Amino acid sequence: MNLWKREGGEGGARRLVLIHGLGANADVWLPLQDKLHARWLAPDLRGHGRSPHRRHYGFASYASDVAELLEQDEEIDVVGHSLGGVVGMALGTGWFGVKVRRVLAFGVKTQWTADEIARSRALANNPVKLFDTREQAVERYLKVSGLSGLVPPSSEVAKNGVSESENKWRLAADPFINAIADLPVARLVGAMQCPLRMAAGSEDPMTTASDMALFDSAAGIIEGAGHNVHVEKPVDLCRWIQQSLI
């Protein structure tokens, strides 16, 4: 699996691995990358952004792909948003041969209703929607990713959320990524071999303080932020990351 990745920063031997959420790409981390004061690696997960599409998607596939980007026995800290947080939990189990010191997960949805699962799986089976112009595709991408009003249509985040196909434009992500729903968060947390810290925006519709308390009694709340904390409140999120890594 040849994941597209962005990396940089300076620091010690340990790296931060930044894992985006469902339907997004590594560019959502751009607001943080000059504030992290650490070496970092940010991939596009399979089926997202500039990485290849595949027939199968799941937390194990995502975690295995990310592990292949790392050196043997390399020690890392993982920061994951939403789905990326669950992928971080999977890496933290040790099942993928990666030495994870700590997993920081924010905006992770831990409670799913039957209707939500059904809607996600229906989305997975929708045909790829093609748009006549890039602008139309970008508008759709920003809407479905929850980034409308948070980043300009001319930004790198928006630009790499769409791709050209058959002389038309489409969302870069494979629709079938939506088949992944109701992830086994409790089982993964129970199997983790490293500490887990969780956080969410105070206005995040995906999770609440009580949801996170089941897995982290000291979960952080970032006031005034919604689901995309890393885009809305990058300074506050960086502060939480640095405090959580001490």
Automatic annotation (TrEMBL):
Signal peptide: none
Pfam families: Abhydrolase_6
Ranges of residues in domain AB hydrolase-1: 16-237
InterPro entries documented for this protein: AB_hydrolase_1, AB_hydrolase_fold, AB_hydrolase_sf
The protein's name in its UniProt record: Pimeloyl-ACP methyl ester carboxylesterase
Species: Pusillimonas noertemannii
